[in-house]
Protein backbone atom coordinates (compact mmCIF):
# COMPACT_ATOMS: atom_id res chain seq x y z
CA UNK A 1 0.00 0.00 0.00
CA UNK A 2 1.25 3.49 -0.79
CA UNK A 3 2.74 5.62 1.97
CA UNK A 4 0.27 8.40 1.22
CA UNK A 5 -2.63 6.05 1.84
CA UNK A 6 -1.54 4.86 5.26
CA UNK A 7 -0.27 8.14 6.67
CA UNK A 8 -2.17 9.26 9.74
CA UNK A 9 -1.51 11.45 12.72
CA UNK A 10 -0.71 9.62 15.93
CA UNK A 11 -1.40 12.51 18.27
CA UNK A 12 -2.40 11.48 21.73
CA UNK A 13 -6.01 12.35 22.43
CA UNK A 14 -6.61 14.16 25.68
CA UNK A 15 -9.41 12.99 27.92
CA UNK A 16 -11.15 15.00 30.60
CA UNK A 17 -10.59 13.77 34.12
CA UNK A 18 -13.52 13.38 36.44
CA UNK A 19 -16.31 10.94 37.15
CA UNK A 20 -16.60 7.76 35.12
CA UNK A 21 -19.49 9.08 33.06
CA UNK A 22 -17.55 12.24 32.27
CA UNK A 23 -14.60 10.15 31.10
CA UNK A 24 -16.82 8.10 28.84
CA UNK A 25 -18.59 11.06 27.30
CA UNK A 26 -15.27 12.83 26.78
CA UNK A 27 -13.96 9.85 24.85
CA UNK A 28 -17.04 9.97 22.63
CA UNK A 29 -17.00 13.69 21.93
CA UNK A 30 -13.33 13.89 21.06
CA UNK A 31 -13.52 11.21 18.39
CA UNK A 32 -16.31 12.86 16.44
CA UNK A 33 -15.03 13.32 12.94
CA UNK A 34 -17.36 13.05 11.17
CA UNK A 35 -19.53 11.11 13.63
CA UNK A 36 -19.28 9.65 17.09
CA UNK A 37 -21.19 6.88 18.75
CA UNK A 38 -23.71 7.98 21.33
CA UNK A 39 -25.05 6.35 24.44
CA UNK A 40 -28.65 5.27 24.16
CA UNK A 41 -30.00 7.92 26.52
CA UNK A 42 -28.22 8.77 29.77
CA UNK A 43 -25.06 6.84 30.58
CA UNK A 44 -26.39 3.46 31.83
CA UNK A 45 -23.96 3.05 34.73
CA UNK A 46 -24.56 -0.17 36.64
CA UNK A 47 -26.20 -0.13 40.05
CA UNK A 48 -24.48 -3.39 41.07
CA UNK A 49 -22.26 -2.76 44.08
CA UNK A 50 -21.63 -6.23 45.54
CA UNK A 51 -20.73 -9.73 44.39
CA UNK A 52 -23.99 -11.10 45.77
CA UNK A 53 -25.94 -8.55 43.72
CA UNK A 54 -24.05 -9.47 40.55
CA UNK A 55 -24.91 -13.14 40.73
CA UNK A 56 -28.51 -12.36 41.66
CA UNK A 57 -29.03 -10.60 38.31
CA UNK A 58 -31.02 -12.24 35.56
CA UNK A 59 -28.70 -13.68 32.92
CA UNK A 60 -26.73 -12.37 31.27
CA UNK A 61 -24.61 -10.05 33.36
CA UNK A 62 -21.48 -8.39 31.97
CA UNK A 63 -17.89 -8.23 33.19
CA UNK A 64 -15.61 -5.89 31.22
CA UNK A 65 -12.78 -8.11 29.94
CA UNK A 66 -9.53 -6.17 30.39
CA UNK A 67 -11.74 -3.10 30.73
CA UNK A 68 -13.43 -3.79 27.34
CA UNK A 69 -10.35 -3.98 25.16
CA UNK A 70 -12.24 -3.70 21.86
CA UNK A 71 -13.08 -0.12 22.79
CA UNK A 72 -10.21 1.31 24.85
CA UNK A 73 -6.56 0.39 25.49
CA UNK A 74 -6.77 -2.72 27.63
CA UNK A 75 -6.06 -2.69 31.36
CA UNK A 76 -5.89 1.08 31.67
CA UNK A 77 -7.66 3.43 34.04
CA UNK A 78 -9.40 4.89 30.99
CA UNK A 79 -10.76 1.50 29.97
CA UNK A 80 -11.96 0.54 33.44
CA UNK A 81 -13.76 3.85 34.03
CA UNK A 82 -15.31 3.98 30.57
CA UNK A 83 -16.50 0.38 30.75
CA UNK A 84 -18.20 1.08 34.07
CA UNK A 85 -19.83 4.19 32.65
CA UNK A 86 -21.03 2.22 29.62
CA UNK A 87 -22.93 -0.20 31.85
CA UNK A 88 -20.54 -3.03 32.74
CA UNK A 89 -21.69 -4.65 35.96
CA UNK A 90 -18.16 -5.74 36.90
CA UNK A 91 -14.57 -5.12 35.81
CA UNK A 92 -11.81 -7.69 35.21
CA UNK A 93 -8.23 -6.77 36.14
CA UNK A 94 -4.97 -8.67 35.61
CA UNK A 95 -2.11 -7.96 38.01
CA UNK A 96 1.68 -8.11 37.80
CA UNK A 97 4.32 -6.71 40.17
CA UNK A 98 7.36 -4.54 39.51
CA UNK A 99 10.85 -5.29 40.79
CA UNK A 100 10.21 -2.98 43.74
CA UNK A 101 6.92 -4.64 44.62
CA UNK A 102 4.36 -2.26 43.11
CA UNK A 103 1.25 -4.08 41.91
CA UNK A 104 0.19 -2.90 38.45
CA UNK A 105 -2.62 -3.62 36.01
CA UNK A 106 -1.30 -5.52 33.00
CA UNK A 107 -2.16 -8.83 31.36
CA UNK A 108 1.26 -9.96 30.13
CA UNK A 109 4.34 -10.41 32.28
CA UNK A 110 6.32 -8.74 29.47
CA UNK A 111 5.25 -5.31 28.20
CA UNK A 112 6.34 -5.79 24.57
CA UNK A 113 2.89 -6.48 23.09
CA UNK A 114 1.42 -3.31 24.52
CA UNK A 115 4.39 -0.93 24.57
CA UNK A 116 6.92 -2.20 22.04
CA UNK A 117 9.56 -2.49 24.79
CA UNK A 118 10.81 -6.04 25.39
CA UNK A 119 11.08 -6.11 29.17
CA UNK A 120 9.49 -8.11 31.95
CA UNK A 121 7.54 -6.11 34.51
CA UNK A 122 9.21 -8.07 37.31
CA UNK A 123 12.58 -6.69 36.18
CA UNK A 124 11.48 -3.04 36.03
CA UNK A 125 11.04 -0.51 38.80
CA UNK A 126 7.76 1.35 39.16
CA UNK A 127 9.57 4.51 38.09
CA UNK A 128 10.76 2.83 34.88
CA UNK A 129 7.33 1.42 34.15
CA UNK A 130 5.67 4.81 34.53
CA UNK A 131 7.59 6.03 31.48
CA UNK A 132 5.92 3.43 29.23
CA UNK A 133 2.57 3.75 27.46
CA UNK A 134 0.05 1.15 26.38
CA UNK A 135 -0.28 1.43 22.61
CA UNK A 136 -3.35 -0.32 21.14
CA UNK A 137 -3.43 1.63 17.89
CA UNK A 138 -2.98 -1.48 15.74
CA UNK A 139 -6.24 -2.78 17.21
CA UNK A 140 -8.28 0.33 17.97
CA UNK A 141 -7.12 2.69 15.24
CA UNK A 142 -4.29 5.16 14.57
CA UNK A 143 -5.74 7.93 16.75
CA UNK A 144 -6.41 5.78 19.81
CA UNK A 145 -4.83 7.31 22.89
CA UNK A 146 -1.59 6.11 24.45
CA UNK A 147 -2.28 5.27 28.09
CA UNK A 148 -0.03 4.63 31.11
CA UNK A 149 0.15 1.30 32.90
CA UNK A 150 -1.83 2.01 36.07
CA UNK A 151 -0.95 1.17 39.63
CA UNK A 152 -3.52 -1.25 41.02
CA UNK A 153 -4.03 0.70 44.23
CA UNK A 154 -4.95 3.82 42.23
CA UNK A 155 -7.53 1.89 40.22
CA UNK A 156 -9.03 0.29 43.31
CA UNK A 157 -9.15 3.64 45.09
CA UNK A 158 -11.30 4.91 42.22
CA UNK A 159 -13.52 1.88 41.64
CA UNK A 160 -13.59 -0.55 44.56
CA UNK A 161 -16.24 1.15 46.68
CA UNK A 162 -18.84 1.20 43.90
CA UNK A 163 -18.03 -1.78 41.67
CA UNK A 164 -17.46 -5.52 41.57
CA UNK A 165 -13.95 -6.37 40.41
CA UNK A 166 -12.51 -9.71 39.29
CA UNK A 167 -8.78 -9.69 40.12
CA UNK A 168 -6.14 -12.14 38.89
CA UNK A 169 -2.54 -12.59 39.97
CA UNK A 170 -1.28 -13.41 36.46
CA UNK A 171 2.07 -14.92 37.45
CA UNK A 172 0.86 -16.60 40.63
CA UNK A 173 3.81 -15.09 42.51
CA UNK A 174 2.13 -12.09 44.12
CA UNK A 175 -0.74 -13.75 45.96
CA UNK A 176 0.20 -12.60 49.46
CA UNK A 177 0.77 -8.98 48.47
CA UNK A 178 -2.36 -8.88 46.34
CA UNK A 179 -4.57 -10.32 49.06
CA UNK A 180 -3.13 -7.86 51.56
CA UNK A 181 -4.03 -4.95 49.28
CA UNK A 182 -7.52 -6.31 48.69
CA UNK A 183 -8.03 -6.76 52.44
CA UNK A 184 -7.24 -3.09 53.02
CA UNK A 185 -10.49 -1.96 51.37
CA UNK A 186 -13.80 -1.76 53.27
CA UNK A 187 -16.18 -4.66 52.64
CA UNK A 188 -13.53 -6.19 50.38
CA UNK A 189 -15.18 -9.59 50.09
CA UNK A 190 -18.33 -7.95 48.72
CA UNK A 191 -16.44 -6.10 46.00
CA UNK A 192 -13.67 -8.46 44.88
CA UNK A 193 -13.74 -11.90 43.24
CA UNK A 194 -10.51 -13.90 43.13
CA UNK A 195 -9.88 -14.99 39.52
CA UNK A 196 -7.42 -17.63 38.32
CA UNK A 197 -6.79 -20.65 36.11
CA UNK A 198 -8.57 -23.55 37.74
CA UNK A 199 -5.49 -25.76 37.82
CA UNK A 200 -3.62 -23.52 40.27
CA UNK A 201 -4.10 -23.44 44.04
CA UNK A 202 -3.81 -19.80 45.12
CA UNK A 203 -7.60 -19.57 45.34
CA UNK A 204 -7.45 -21.60 48.54
CA UNK A 205 -5.78 -18.68 50.33
CA UNK A 206 -8.33 -16.24 48.94
CA UNK A 207 -11.19 -18.46 50.02
CA UNK A 208 -9.85 -18.64 53.58
CA UNK A 209 -10.10 -14.84 53.71
CA UNK A 210 -13.73 -14.92 52.67
CA UNK A 211 -13.43 -14.11 48.96
CA UNK A 212 -15.56 -15.77 46.32
CA UNK A 213 -13.42 -17.45 43.67
CA UNK A 214 -13.76 -17.91 39.91
CA UNK A 215 -11.73 -20.64 38.21
CA UNK A 216 -11.48 -20.69 34.44
CA UNK A 217 -10.66 -23.70 32.30
CA UNK A 218 -9.44 -24.27 28.78
CA UNK A 219 -11.75 -25.82 26.24
CA UNK A 220 -10.41 -29.35 26.80
CA UNK A 221 -11.69 -29.38 30.41
CA UNK A 222 -8.69 -31.49 31.42
CA UNK A 223 -9.26 -30.86 35.12
CA UNK A 224 -10.48 -33.07 37.91
CA UNK A 225 -13.77 -32.69 39.69
CA UNK A 226 -11.83 -32.00 42.89
CA UNK A 227 -10.15 -28.98 41.28
CA UNK A 228 -13.38 -27.51 39.95
CA UNK A 229 -15.26 -28.13 43.19
CA UNK A 230 -12.91 -25.72 44.96
CA UNK A 231 -14.37 -22.69 43.16
CA UNK A 232 -17.59 -20.79 43.64
CA UNK A 233 -17.88 -19.90 39.96
CA UNK A 234 -16.46 -21.44 36.78
CA UNK A 235 -15.25 -19.99 33.49
CA UNK A 236 -14.59 -21.18 29.94
CA UNK A 237 -13.39 -19.62 26.67
CA UNK A 238 -15.96 -18.86 23.99
CA UNK A 239 -14.15 -21.12 21.50
CA UNK A 240 -15.05 -24.25 23.47
CA UNK A 241 -17.52 -26.62 21.85
CA UNK A 242 -21.18 -26.58 22.78
CA UNK A 243 -20.70 -29.96 24.44
CA UNK A 244 -17.78 -28.75 26.56
CA UNK A 245 -19.65 -25.66 27.72
CA UNK A 246 -22.74 -27.71 28.50
CA UNK A 247 -20.68 -30.14 30.60
CA UNK A 248 -19.29 -27.28 32.65
CA UNK A 249 -22.73 -25.71 33.10
CA UNK A 250 -24.07 -29.10 34.21
CA UNK A 251 -21.81 -28.94 37.28
CA UNK A 252 -24.38 -26.58 38.75
CA UNK A 253 -22.16 -23.57 39.43
CA UNK A 254 -22.55 -20.19 37.71
CA UNK A 255 -20.46 -20.11 34.52
CA UNK A 256 -18.88 -16.99 33.02
CA UNK A 257 -17.47 -17.19 29.48
CA UNK A 258 -14.71 -15.05 28.03
CA UNK A 259 -13.98 -13.24 25.79
CA UNK A 260 -17.28 -12.12 24.29
CA UNK A 261 -16.91 -9.74 21.34
CA UNK A 262 -20.22 -10.11 19.49
CA UNK A 263 -23.92 -10.30 20.27
CA UNK A 264 -24.08 -13.64 18.49
CA UNK A 265 -21.42 -15.01 20.86
CA UNK A 266 -23.51 -13.86 23.81
CA UNK A 267 -26.67 -15.41 22.39
CA UNK A 268 -25.01 -18.79 21.80
CA UNK A 269 -23.50 -18.87 25.29
CA UNK A 270 -26.74 -17.82 26.91
CA UNK A 271 -28.59 -20.69 25.22
CA UNK A 272 -25.99 -23.09 26.61
CA UNK A 273 -26.66 -21.90 30.17
CA UNK A 274 -23.80 -19.43 30.65
CA UNK A 275 -24.91 -16.62 32.97
CA UNK A 276 -21.99 -14.17 32.81
CA UNK A 277 -20.35 -12.59 29.78
CA UNK A 278 -16.75 -11.46 30.25
CA UNK A 279 -17.03 -9.01 27.41
CA UNK A 280 -14.44 -7.12 25.35
CA UNK A 281 -17.00 -4.95 23.56
CA UNK A 282 -19.24 -3.64 26.35
CA UNK A 283 -21.03 -0.69 24.64
CA UNK A 284 -21.93 -2.74 21.56
CA UNK A 285 -22.82 -6.12 23.05
CA UNK A 286 -24.87 -4.51 25.82
CA UNK A 287 -26.60 -2.25 23.29
CA UNK A 288 -25.81 0.90 25.25
CA UNK A 289 -25.02 2.90 22.09
CA UNK A 290 -27.36 4.27 19.45
CA UNK A 291 -27.00 2.80 15.93
CA UNK A 292 -24.87 4.99 13.67
CA UNK A 293 -26.10 6.37 10.35
CA UNK A 294 -22.62 7.18 8.95
CA UNK A 295 -19.26 5.53 9.46
CA UNK A 296 -16.66 6.98 11.82
CA UNK A 297 -13.54 6.04 9.86
CA UNK A 298 -12.30 9.64 9.86
CA UNK A 299 -12.15 9.59 13.66
CA UNK A 300 -9.19 7.23 13.47
CA UNK A 301 -10.72 5.09 16.22
CA UNK A 302 -12.83 2.01 15.63
CA UNK A 303 -16.49 2.40 16.59
CA UNK A 304 -18.07 -0.06 19.06
CA UNK A 305 -19.35 -3.06 17.10
CA UNK A 306 -17.08 -2.66 14.08
CA UNK A 307 -14.86 -5.76 14.05
CA UNK A 308 -12.83 -7.95 11.70
CA UNK A 309 -14.29 -11.36 10.88
CA UNK A 310 -12.25 -13.00 13.65
CA UNK A 311 -10.93 -11.77 16.97
CA UNK A 312 -9.01 -14.97 17.72
CA UNK A 313 -5.94 -14.14 15.60
CA UNK A 314 -4.86 -11.13 17.63
CA UNK A 315 -4.49 -7.65 16.24
CA UNK A 316 -2.90 -8.46 12.90
CA UNK A 317 -6.08 -8.71 10.84
CA UNK A 318 -7.71 -5.48 12.01
CA UNK A 319 -8.27 -3.39 8.84
CA UNK A 320 -6.42 -0.07 8.66
CA UNK A 321 -8.44 3.05 9.40
CA UNK A 322 -7.29 6.05 7.34
CA UNK A 323 -8.44 9.27 9.05
CA UNK A 324 -7.25 11.60 6.28
CA UNK A 325 -9.46 9.94 3.66
CA UNK A 326 -12.20 8.79 6.05
CA UNK A 327 -11.78 5.21 4.91
CA UNK A 328 -10.93 1.67 5.97
CA UNK A 329 -8.59 -0.65 4.06
CA UNK A 330 -8.93 -4.45 3.97
CA UNK A 331 -5.61 -5.97 2.90
CA UNK A 332 -5.06 -9.13 4.94
CA UNK A 333 -4.02 -12.12 2.76
CA UNK A 334 -7.26 -14.05 3.16
CA UNK A 335 -10.93 -13.71 2.34
CA UNK A 336 -12.15 -11.29 4.98
CA UNK A 337 -15.05 -9.17 6.13
CA UNK A 338 -15.40 -6.16 8.38
CA UNK A 339 -18.57 -6.23 10.44
CA UNK A 340 -20.23 -2.82 10.72
CA UNK A 341 -21.91 -3.44 14.05
CA UNK A 342 -21.93 0.26 14.88
CA UNK A 343 -24.92 0.59 12.51
CA UNK A 344 -26.86 -2.38 13.87
CA UNK A 345 -29.61 -3.12 13.92
CA UNK A 346 -30.68 -1.62 10.58
CA UNK A 347 -34.39 -1.56 9.81
CA UNK A 348 -34.24 -3.50 6.54
CA UNK A 349 -37.94 -3.28 5.79
CA UNK A 350 -37.19 -0.03 3.98
CA UNK A 351 -33.60 1.20 3.88
CA UNK A 352 -30.73 2.37 1.72
CA UNK A 353 -27.10 1.40 2.39
CA UNK A 354 -24.62 3.43 0.36
CA UNK A 355 -20.85 3.12 0.27
CA UNK A 356 -17.80 3.67 -1.90
CA UNK A 357 -15.02 1.26 -2.74
CA UNK A 358 -11.80 1.35 -4.72
CA UNK A 359 -8.64 -0.61 -5.33
CA UNK A 360 -6.03 2.01 -4.38
CA UNK A 361 -2.82 0.36 -5.63
CA UNK A 362 -3.77 -2.28 -8.19
CA UNK A 363 -6.80 -4.33 -9.14
CA UNK A 364 -7.04 -8.08 -8.52
CA UNK A 365 -7.72 -10.59 -11.30
CA UNK A 366 -10.73 -9.58 -13.40
CA UNK A 367 -13.13 -12.06 -11.79
CA UNK A 368 -12.13 -11.18 -8.21
CA UNK A 369 -14.46 -8.96 -6.23
CA UNK A 370 -15.37 -6.98 -3.13
CA UNK A 371 -18.62 -5.58 -1.80
CA UNK A 372 -21.24 -5.77 0.93
CA UNK A 373 -23.06 -8.57 2.74
CA UNK A 374 -26.43 -7.56 4.18
CA UNK A 375 -29.76 -8.78 5.51
CA UNK A 376 -27.89 -10.85 8.11
CA UNK A 377 -29.95 -11.99 11.08
CA UNK A 378 -26.96 -11.85 13.45
CA UNK A 379 -23.43 -10.53 13.68
CA UNK A 380 -21.91 -13.95 13.08
CA UNK A 381 -19.06 -13.51 10.58
CA UNK A 382 -20.16 -13.68 6.93
CA UNK A 383 -17.36 -14.20 4.40
CA UNK A 384 -18.11 -14.62 0.72
CA UNK A 385 -17.03 -18.05 -0.51
CA UNK A 386 -16.75 -19.49 3.01
CA UNK A 387 -19.72 -21.04 4.80
CA UNK A 388 -21.21 -19.19 7.75
CA UNK A 389 -23.74 -19.74 10.51
CA UNK A 390 -25.81 -16.86 9.15
CA UNK A 391 -27.77 -16.50 5.90
CA UNK A 392 -27.98 -13.35 3.84
CA UNK A 393 -27.16 -11.57 0.61
CA UNK A 394 -23.95 -10.21 -0.86
CA UNK A 395 -23.65 -7.52 -3.50
CA UNK A 396 -20.27 -7.61 -5.24
CA UNK A 397 -18.34 -5.56 -7.76
CA UNK A 398 -15.84 -7.56 -9.79
CA UNK A 399 -12.59 -6.07 -11.00
CA UNK A 400 -13.94 -6.38 -14.56
CA UNK A 401 -16.88 -4.16 -13.58
CA UNK A 402 -19.63 -6.77 -13.36
CA UNK A 403 -22.13 -6.07 -10.59
CA UNK A 404 -23.71 -9.19 -9.02
CA UNK A 405 -26.27 -9.91 -6.31
CA UNK A 406 -26.21 -13.28 -4.53
CA UNK A 407 -28.34 -15.00 -1.89
CA UNK A 408 -26.73 -17.53 0.42
CA UNK A 409 -27.98 -19.91 3.10
CA UNK A 410 -26.15 -20.73 6.32
CA UNK A 411 -23.75 -23.65 6.09
CA UNK A 412 -23.23 -23.21 2.34
CA UNK A 413 -20.11 -21.66 0.83
CA UNK A 414 -21.44 -20.79 -2.62
CA UNK A 415 -24.33 -18.40 -3.06
CA UNK A 416 -27.11 -18.35 -5.65
CA UNK A 417 -26.89 -15.62 -8.28
CA UNK A 418 -30.05 -13.50 -8.24
CA UNK A 419 -29.07 -10.86 -10.77
CA UNK A 420 -26.15 -9.34 -12.67
CA UNK A 421 -25.34 -6.36 -14.87
CA UNK A 422 -22.13 -5.40 -16.73
CA UNK A 423 -20.58 -2.03 -15.88
CA UNK A 424 -17.21 -0.51 -16.81
CA UNK A 425 -14.13 -1.94 -15.11
CA UNK A 426 -12.98 0.49 -12.41
CA UNK A 427 -9.56 2.05 -12.85
CA UNK A 428 -6.91 1.76 -10.15
CA UNK A 429 -7.68 4.38 -7.51
CA UNK A 430 -11.16 5.15 -8.89
CA UNK A 431 -13.87 5.47 -6.25
CA UNK A 432 -17.02 3.53 -7.20
CA UNK A 433 -20.31 4.59 -5.60
CA UNK A 434 -22.61 1.68 -4.79
CA UNK A 435 -26.07 1.61 -3.24
CA UNK A 436 -28.12 -1.28 -1.86
CA UNK A 437 -31.81 -0.38 -1.49
CA UNK A 438 -34.49 -2.51 0.15
CA UNK A 439 -38.19 -1.72 -0.07
CA UNK A 440 -40.64 -4.46 0.74
CA UNK A 441 -39.67 -7.51 -1.31
CA UNK A 442 -37.60 -5.49 -3.80
CA UNK A 443 -33.79 -5.38 -3.54
CA UNK A 444 -31.90 -3.00 -5.81
CA UNK A 445 -28.14 -2.73 -6.23
CA UNK A 446 -26.88 0.19 -8.29
CA UNK A 447 -23.64 1.85 -9.33
CA UNK A 448 -23.02 5.55 -9.66
CA UNK A 449 -26.66 6.55 -10.10
CA UNK A 450 -26.64 5.28 -13.70
CA UNK A 451 -30.03 3.67 -14.52
CA UNK A 452 -28.30 1.19 -16.83
CA UNK A 453 -26.10 -0.11 -14.01
CA UNK A 454 -28.80 -1.59 -11.78
CA UNK A 455 -29.62 -5.07 -10.50
CA UNK A 456 -33.21 -5.33 -9.20
CA UNK A 457 -34.87 -8.49 -7.87
CA UNK A 458 -37.82 -9.48 -5.69
CA UNK A 459 -36.59 -11.61 -2.80
CA UNK A 460 -37.63 -11.29 0.84
CA UNK A 461 -35.92 -14.28 2.44
CA UNK A 462 -33.44 -12.30 4.54
CA UNK A 463 -34.18 -9.07 6.36
CA UNK A 464 -31.77 -9.14 9.28
CA UNK A 465 -30.30 -5.88 10.56
CA UNK A 466 -26.56 -6.59 10.22
CA UNK A 467 -24.12 -5.98 7.37
CA UNK A 468 -20.40 -6.24 6.59
CA UNK A 469 -17.85 -4.88 4.15
CA UNK A 470 -16.23 -7.74 2.24
CA UNK A 471 -12.92 -8.47 0.50
CA UNK A 472 -13.61 -11.73 -1.31
CA UNK A 473 -10.17 -12.90 -2.42
CA UNK A 474 -7.10 -14.17 -0.60
CA UNK A 475 -4.57 -11.98 -2.41
CA UNK A 476 -3.10 -9.16 -0.27
CA UNK A 477 -4.33 -6.55 -2.76
CA UNK A 478 -5.95 -3.79 -0.70
CA UNK A 479 -9.55 -2.73 -1.19
CA UNK A 480 -10.66 0.51 0.43
CA UNK A 481 -14.14 1.49 1.63
CA UNK A 482 -15.52 4.88 2.61
CA UNK A 483 -18.71 6.95 2.94
CA UNK A 484 -20.79 4.14 4.45
CA UNK A 485 -24.25 5.47 5.19
CA UNK A 486 -27.65 4.04 6.14
CA UNK A 487 -30.88 5.87 5.36
UniProtKB/TrEMBL annotation:
InterPro entries in the cross-refs: GP_PDE_dom, PLC-like_Pdiesterase_TIM-brl, TAT_signal
SUPFAM superfamilies per record: PLC-like phosphodiesterases
Q: Which GO terms describe its biological process?
A: lipid metabolic process
- Entry's Pfam families? GDPD (PF03009)
Q: Which residues form the GP-PDE domain?
A: 60-290
Q: Which domain of life is it from?
A: Bacteria
**GO MF term list:** phosphoric diester hydrolase activity
This one is known as: GP-PDE domain-containing protein
Query: What is the phylogenetic placement of the source species in the record?
Result: Bacteria, Bacillati, Actinomycetota, Actinomycetes, Micrococcales
Amino acid sequence: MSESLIRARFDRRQFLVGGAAVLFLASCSQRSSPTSYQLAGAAPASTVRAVSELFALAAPFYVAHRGSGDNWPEHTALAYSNAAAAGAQAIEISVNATADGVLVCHHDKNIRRMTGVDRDIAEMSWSELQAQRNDARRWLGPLASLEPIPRLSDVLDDLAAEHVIFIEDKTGRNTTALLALMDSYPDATEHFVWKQWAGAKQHQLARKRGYKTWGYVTSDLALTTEMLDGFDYLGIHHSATDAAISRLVARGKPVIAWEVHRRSMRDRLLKLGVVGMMCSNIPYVMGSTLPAVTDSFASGVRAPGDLPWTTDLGWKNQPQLIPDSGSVVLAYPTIESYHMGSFAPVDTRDCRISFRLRWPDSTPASSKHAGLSFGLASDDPYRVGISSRVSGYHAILRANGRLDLYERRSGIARGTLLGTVPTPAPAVGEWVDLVVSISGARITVSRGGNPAWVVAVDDSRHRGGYFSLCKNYADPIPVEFSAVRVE
